Amino acid sequence: MFKDTAATENIRAHVPGVTVRCQVADYTSQPLPLNRLPNTRTLALYIGSSIGNFSPTDARNVLRNLRAQLLPGDRLLLGTDLGPSSQKSVATIEAAYNDRAGVTAAFNHNVLVRLNRDLGSDFNPQAFTHLAIWNAEQSRIEMHLVSRRAQQIHIPANSAGPSLTLNFASGESIHTDNSYKFNPGSVRRLLASAGFELTHTWQDEQRLFAVNLATAV
């Protein structure tokens, strides 16, 4: 039996009259059966901006999977992080991923910590520098771990495959993550490719983020 999460309890405590029914599924590919009441519409919430963690093809497939669970006329509220504009510079975007507190750098270095823990490799996370750069052609922030020096890494044989030796030159990087950014046109095209029509968009005063309302067609 699925145990209610803290988020579920928080909703129940602070939003009277809301019924919460939890489901466990891989939302990127598995269906989420909806228990519809008669003569009702469904509003799906995908807020935040995590749709940008997927490549354009994968983002379309995620939304198509959601669309398959909906009926024409149902709605989707989709959060997106906006790309560069007259109010949001490339420097602003890059600074968010090269934060002075080093939170994102620690997150990025954790990739190597996990490889050491899970695969028995011998990465030294401090031998790599965190770098986040804007790729205008792909409209995405790219996160890299850049080798500080020439070095050799060993990954022992495991259930995933044979042993592996990796040679890094100084300045060579591991491309670890992408975060895609959007503009009104790219959001509209993404939604249309998944069976939705964009009907309204709200943006904050600084034009940093957007929340997009779309209708299943």
Determine the mean pLDDT: 93
- The poorly predicted ranges are none
Number of domains: 2
Strand content: 25-35%
H and E string: HEHEHHEEEEEHEE
| Tally of helical runs | 5
Q: What is the straight-line distance between the termini?
A: 35 Å
Main sheet?
A: 4 strands, mixed
Rg (C-alpha, Å): 21 Å
Largest sheet: spatial strand order: 1-2-9-8
Any idea what the shape is?
globular
Extended strand count? 9
Structural class: alpha+beta
The share of residues in helices is: 25-40%
Protein architecture, described:
This protein folds into two domains: 40-82 and 182-217, Vaccinia Virus protein VP39 (Rossmann fold, 3-Layer(aba) Sandwich); 90-178, no CATH class. It is α+β, with helices and mostly antiparallel strands. Strands 1-2-9-8 form a four-stranded mixed β-sheet, covered by helices on one side. It is globular, with a radius of gyration of 21 Å. The protein contains five helices and nine strands; from the N terminus they run αβαβααβββββαββ. Helices cover 26% and strands 28% of the residues. The chain has helices spanning 6-14, 56-67, 90-97, 103-119, 184-193, and strands at residues 43-46, 75-81, 128-135, 140-147, 151-155, 164-168, 173-180, 196-203, 209-216.
